[in-house]
Predict the structure.
Amino acid sequence: MITASVDPRLDLARETVGSVRVLPDPSLPPRLLQLIDGRGRRYFAKQHSSRTRYAQEVKAYGTWAQHLTGHVPELVGWHDRTHTLLVTALAGKRADAAAPGSAEEELAHHEAGRILRLLHQATLNPRSGAVGPDLADRLARWIDRAEQAGLLSSGERGRLSAHEEVLANTLMDSAVCHLDYQPRNWILGDSFGLYDLEHMRRDARIRDFARMEFRRWQAAPHLRNAFYSGYGRHPTDTEQRLLESFGAIEAITALVRGYEQDDLALSAHGRTVLARLS
């Protein structure tokens, strides 16, 4: 996609903000480039391989980022043909660099809850019947892919199908959700910051808790408490049970993607989550 001599990300940056140079950062994924201009202002340029993800992220900045002003980057340029966009860099460090068990880690979760509430409150549609059937269909498609790959036992298939039925028949709050809400996308600085809006769309509100519930909070319940303290309330018992059905989506997507990408850690995560589902 990118060559040393021709890079659509650099072209976009130079057309938008003028002369820039690359700030090397080996921790960034290949599609991201950190840049700095002549005045010392930093940016991130991203090239999407998927037109859908590109369009979704541009829409998120243009439509929903207004509810998170001061907490998300500014979209300063984009190019439809190359699926490339340029955003300002937020000051601070990634929250996943906070020491486990530290006060800084706990503060990050509290602030993450507080800021997510801004987005959810501004876009809330209470007890909607629109999102459940769509989520059930999505789960069904992932189950089919897993079965075609021979990844499920009959018992596992039955458990997942039960959660598919729950999703299809449950009214649930909908809101615009980030859908990859976890410390690698949080920035700790003078103000809490949030990156990576490419998955943002309207979905079940509590689905935004699923990544943390099944990837972080099982081993660190104090972080769960800190998050919901910032958010303003804990899930109800009914919502907590529904969160288990979002765990089914988490499990099956991890299993399939782990298999397709030969990612043993992701596959193991899928198995762990699947085993804990009732």
Remarks:
- The chain has two domains: 8-89, 94-276.
- The mean pLDDT is 94.
